[in-house]
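Entry:
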Amino acid sequence: MYPTIAQNTELLKHLEALIQAHRPVFKQERIYQRIRALVFGEIIALGRRTLSQIIVNLGLVNEDWTAWYRVFSGGRFAESKANEVLLGECLKHIARDQVLVLGGDGTQTPRTGKQIEGVGWLRNFRTPPFKVGIHRAQRWFHGALLLPPEAGYSRALPLRFLPAFTAKAHRSITDPCKEWQAALIFLNWVLGLLGLWGRSDQPLLFLGDGSYDTVAFWKALPQGVNALLRSAKNRALFHLPPPGCHGRRKDGDKAPSPQDFWQKRAGWKRCSVLIRGRQRQLRYRVEGPFLRKGAPDVPLMLLIIGGQTYAKHGRTRHRDPIPYLVNARLDDTGNWVLPLPVETLLFWAWQRWELEVTHRELKSNFGLGDMQAWHPRAALATVPFSAWAYSLCLLAAYRTWGLCQHPPAPLCPWWRGAGRWSFNTLWRAYRAALWGECPFHATWSAFLDNPTDNSGFWHAWRSALYASARL
């Protein structure tokens, strides 16, 4: 008897419930059924997740595929409305007084067609750093929600994939947009929904890299949003103007750069933070308040995290400290302080890497950008659809196991599992659960124990008959 992956029916029940919650988004039942089938097609497809391959995997080889392509080219999939429902489902796991953590990062979907909407020349990150190349691709802003921590772990769940096409890209129905502008659109979208649902006082933290540390972003940051952004080591910072300063001067003298601060021996503090199942001793220092040139109304605090020491190939290496800028707030005594506890900021600054993990899983495993998208509306809908389907699968798994409870599966003698389940483990669990359903049942059986026993063959043949029946 060979061990197999257990078939968890709760996983499919949660996924079905999430898809059913999106039923009001689609006007017609047939459109909803096609969307539902495409979500399962994303799971069972083995090769590239082009729309034609997904339809073939669903067994619809003798039907007209025009209606399936019109789901995207005809605007049947309303990305903003679908993600609005998704955000509402995510908020069921976050209390009103709990910090709602959002993350933003830019990503690309490589394209070969010159006339596809949003395609332009961008830096090719698949080339080596010593010889950077360019390629044709679409640029997107990925706005994600980070799930509540569990044993020091978290996951980034995509909420929006907004087009951030450059000015020189091929565009017919979209306007050029920078990454920080798309981030502001995303934040205002979330704030509008929170106000509509009676969560206007929900504490909100936005995580971003250096692409969003611009004066324009800080000036347009919505009220009520705390932004923790990675900054440059030579960032020009200025002190607040001295008391009694009048005239046109809105900032004080120039302050030392972040690199100047981390070269000082005094002023460092330590704290212990549980990160990914381990207690880590982190060095940090807080300086400020400071101002950016051109943003005199946004006081900022500088948070510097000390570099880590590690061993590689028998040699000890050391990483440079990392500076972050976060908008400051006034306390009861009239002093500018951090908007959240420093332990909270340190933990979530570490977890921002989950957005990069999501990009790898979406592109390498879930086929983000594989769908054909020649129509301008389809080019804007297929990528957000794949991210939305990925989020449904991830949220259903979170409701089934949480973050650290592993799905039941046979483990190898040389591997006893990880701190949390991976996306590949989740993918196997979905396929194992679908294996027990009639339309997805296996049609092949091996005679491992008794070659003269034909019961396995007859069972597979009967399953094939049931699967071929269009019920």
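The chain has 13 helices and 14 strands.
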